[in-house]
Amino acid sequence: MIKEMTCVACPLGCQLTVELNDKNEVLSVTGNTCKRGEQYAHDECTNPVRMLTTTIKVNGGSLPVIPVKTSAPIPKGKMFDCMKVINSEVVDAPIKMGEVLISNICDTGVDIVATNEM
Ligand code: SF4
Fold first, then answer.
1. In angstroms, rounded to a whole number, what is the distance separating the alpha carbons of residues 3 and 62?
2. At 41, is the secondary structure helix, strand, or coil?
3. What are the structural domains of the chain?
4. Ligand 1 center to residue 2 CA distance, Å?
5. What is the pLDDT of residue 26?
6. Residue 49 and residue 71: Cα distance in Å, rounded?
7. pTM of the prediction?
């Protein structure tokens, strides 16, 4: 099977062509300009991960929500569960930038941190 994808490891956005066997194992990667593209293709085909950026409701702040992000990429398949947890949370102001608001979300080993202060 052939899979086409865009490498997002840097702004160049190389168009990758990935050849997979029946077990979804990567046989070859072409179109990448550097080694990171090959790694990206492997990760994307075996365990795709994404950074999650969103907001959390705030109690007692100057605004009703604060922007947050994951401290590291999380498995794409856990995005929905993580959003359910984040949407059910209300955090108390004051909040410092970089403060961990939810630790080890959905047992990913990744924290949800504030990207602003309030
Ligand atoms: S293959 Fe390399 S140069 Fe191309 S987008 Fe990915 S990281 Fe950037």
1. 47
2. helix
3. 2-46 (no CATH), 53-114 (3.10.530.10)
4. 19
5. 94
6. 13
7. 0.78
Q: Which of 4, 6, 7 to mutate to test the pocket of ligand 1 (most atoms within 8 A of CB)?
A: 7
Region class of 106: left (phi > 0), else alpha (psi between -120 and 50), else beta: left
13 Cβ inside 6 Å of ligand 1: yes
What's the confidence (pLDDT) of residue 105? 98
For 43-68, write each residue's pLDDT tens digit: 999 889 999 999 999 999 999 999 99
Check residue 93 and give its pLDDT.
97
Two tokens, residue 115: 């990207």
Closest CA to 116 of 103, 99, 102, 104: 99
